[in-house]
Design goal:
With 91 residues, this protein is mainly α. It has one domain (5-90). Helix content is 49%, strand content 4%. It has helices at residues 5-14, 21-31, 64-77, 81-90; strands at residues 41-42, 47-48. The longest helix is centred in the C-terminal third of the chain and has 14 residues, at 64-77. The protein is globular, with a radius of gyration of 13 Å.
Length: 91
């Protein structure tokens, strides 16, 4: 799923996140892979969910708030968590 910057900025503000919004946006797009095992259209953000490889890893059930809280938890530990993750995946 590809979240828009506008949508993720709004969600970050709702949850009180005050960190790097670009990093939050990256995280939302990475963590959306933890959602539904079947692709479907998300009418709230007009996107398509990615599919998980294993139903046991479906931990957010396409709930954007749960996804955002997961992102915030990672960013609280390491503010550039998703940038670093993407660099590692590119290698």
């Amino acid at each position: 799923m590809k979240f828009t910057l506008d949508y993720t900025n709004m969600l970050a503000r709702q949850l009180g996140y005050k960190g790097n919004l670009h990093e939050f946006w990256l995280g939302m797009n990475v963590e959306s892979e933890r959602g539904n095992v079947n692709p479907r259209t998300d009418t709230k953000s007009n996107g398509i969910f990615l599919t998980t490889k294993n139903p046991r890893t479906n931990i957010t059930f396409n709930d954007n708030t749960l996804t955002a809280r997961t992102v915030i938890a990672h960013l609280d530990e390491k503010p550039d968590y998703y940038s670093q993750l993407l660099k590692i995946e590119e290698k």
